């Protein structure tokens, strides 16, 4: 997060316009609102027919983008935007 703030502050200091910023870990910290269960992935050694309960979003899942958008929206509202 500090490196992201640094990049944004340098852009602001030089009055540059940032069009896009990619954060590799953006989806890893979003919690889920509803329950999500999934089949075991390859390499997980659980009993046959069991499911995994997701506590947080997983990159590439359909719920990840929605959960991240809600967090960003809440932060913007708290910041006065």
TrEMBL record:
Residues 2-81 form the Reverse transcriptase Ty1/copia-type domain. This is Reverse transcriptase Ty1/copia-type domain-containing protein. It comes from Peronospora matthiolae. InterPro entries: RVT_2 (IPR013103).
């Amino acid at each position: 997060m500090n490196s992201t703030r640094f990049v944004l502050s340098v852009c602001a200091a030089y009055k540059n316009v940032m069009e896009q910023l990619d954060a590799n870990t953006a989806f890893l910290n979003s919690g889920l609102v509803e329950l999500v269960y999934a089949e075991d992935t390859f390499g997980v050694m659980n009993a046959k027919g069991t499911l995994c309960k997701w506590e947080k979003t997983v990159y590439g899942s359909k719920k990840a983008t929605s959960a991240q958008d809600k967090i960003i929206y809440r932060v913007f509202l708290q910041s006065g935007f």
